[in-house]
TrEMBL record:
Record lineage: Eukaryota, Metazoa, Chordata, Craniata, Vertebrata
Organism: Eleginops maclovinus (Patagonian blennie)
Extent of Basic residues compositional bias: 1-12, 22-42
Highest taxon in the source lineage: Eukaryota
Name of protein: Uncharacterized protein
Region (Disordered): 1-44
Amino acid sequence: MLSIHRLGRRTREKMTEEWNQSKRRRCVAKRKMERKKERKKTSSNPLKYFLNSISTAKLGKQHILWTPPERRL
């Protein structure tokens, strides 16, 4: 890595900005992969998949599935 201090301020800022962007991109890709793996795990187990779909579904008729009777409208 070439010495950052020899460069001008603008160049240095630009370099760190580029580095941060690439770092962010890597993090996003990593998270995406982790989510994908997680989804695969749940889809292989039907019960787990069903429970997940219940806990995540909060709209429409699916909402009725897990709301207690006294709270239903």
